[in-house]
Amino acid sequence: MSHQTKFVFFFIVLNIFFTSCSRDKTAPTIKFEEDNFCVSPGGEIEVLMEFEDESEIVELIMTAADLDFMNRISGASLQNIGGMLNVIFGIDEETPIGTYELTVQAIDEFDNVGSESIRIKVI
Asked: Which of 8, 18, 33, 64 places its Cα 20 to 30 Å from the Cα of 1?
């Protein structure tokens, strides 16, 4: 093996070592101020959440499939909120009485995904 080949091989092994050692493998955490809400059809709830991670969170996805709701926050909008987010969530007047779930996913720059849910009871 030539010196040049040995150097390239050594560089590749070194690069793999440092890449695997520095990679964040921990999912972001999400905490809600409250995790159960009661609301009447046509009303609204205010959801305050805090999220954090060792690395940069690059996207938040909020979904409530049964309520036909999905929202993504990323880029500059996400960087300006500083780990806290307050969302006003309106409930349609035609929403049937029942219990629904709002799920928030936080994705960091290494594609680790943290997920938490709250219950919304329409009464």
From this structure: 18
pLDDT tier at 75, thresholds 50, 70, 90: confident
First to last CA, the chain: 75
Q: Look at residue 85 and tell me if it is in a domain.
A: yes
pLDDT tens digits, 79-110: 666 788 888 888 999 999 999 999 999 999 99
Number of structural domains (the chain) is 1
Asked whether the beta carbons of 53 and 33 are under 8 A apart, the reply is: no
DSSP 17-51: HHHHHH---PPPEEEES-SEEEE-TT-EEEEEEEE
b/e for 13-30, b at 16 or more Cβ within 10 A? Answer: eeeeeeeeeeeeeebbeb
